[in-house]
Amino acid sequence: MNFGPLPSVDAAAVPSEGFVLDVREDDEWAAGHVEGALHIPMSDFVSRFGELTEAVEDGRRVHVMCRVGGRSAQVTQYLVRQEIDAVNIDGGMQAWESAGRPMVTDSGNPAFVL
């Protein structure tokens, strides 16, 4: 069965109020992330799936983020199969940083992509 091309979006094109799901691990998240993003590491994703479905029960689009786009592509594919409006952020946090998009840390240290 072919699901067609994976829906994806350029990091620069994610709306500033867009909902971002970050599937990177804790150390990557701590180094720098998108303000307001929901953080569910891919390794915990299935067990914490309910947190995401609650957050998007209004039907809004999920912009899925990882470091370069591989893990987020897998999660996006899964979400699309669950009939959730999800798109993969092409190039992940590296593209986000390159596009000059804002990043934050919980510690207040300068944000960077690990």
TrEMBL record:
Instruction: Offer one Pfam family short name for this entry.
Output: Rhodanese
- CDD domains of this UniProt entry? RHOD (cd00158)
Q: Which InterPro entries match?
A: GlpE_sulfurtransferase (IPR050229), Rhodanese-like_dom (IPR001763), Rhodanese-like_dom_sf (IPR036873)
Per UniProt, residues of the Rhodanese domain are: 14-105
Q: Which residues form a coiled coil?
A: none
**Superkingdom of the source?**
Bacteria
- Quote the protein name from its UniProt record: Rhodanese-like domain-containing protein
